[in-house]
Amino acid sequence: MVVLNREQYQIWAMRLSIVTAIIVVLLSLINEIRFLNIIVRAGVSFGVIYCLITGSLELFERTAHQKPQDIQSDTTSDCGGNIDFSVGDDEPLSSQGNDAGFPGQVDRDLSSGLPDSEKQAEMVRRMGWQ
Question: Which domain of life, per UniProt (predicted)?
Fold first, then answer.
């Protein structure tokens, strides 16, 4: 899959570089540049654009996170778990259960009313807003 995408990106990099070179040639013809200078400008513009595109593709491939292909994980089981911990929820979402009838990230304690000022201050402190 990665090889197929890489080949497609290289084809598109080639096409974009050719279109850029054609635009440079047309603008050079409009400005009445000599033929040898047109050829040099077209070659340089093609080379620069192609190197920039393939270089950025290579950079993105080297810095991308590698997904393990042998591990099949269920993405819906831990959905939102990291965000719950970052806003101060101490228990994982999966251990709380879904029987309360509250969707998503809604705090189940809000059904009994708003938290007192001490609990609000604690939440603000945990979020780093102090």
Answer: Bacteria
Kindly report, residue by residue over 40-93, the tens digit of the pLDDT. 999 999 999 999 999 998 888 888 777 666 555 555 555 555 555 556 556 655
Range of the domain at 41: 4-64
71 in a structural domain: no
Cα–Cα dist 47/36, whole Å: 17
Backbone angles phi, psi at 62, to 5 degrees: -75, -30
Residue 32 lies in a domain: yes
CA atoms within 13 A of residue 46's CA, in its CB half-sphere: 13
- Does residue 30 contact residue 59 with C-beta atoms inside 8 Å? no
Question: What total number of domains does the chain contain?
Answer: 1
* Residues belonging to the chain: 130
In the chain, % of residues over pLDDT 90? 34
Residue at 17 is within a domain? yes
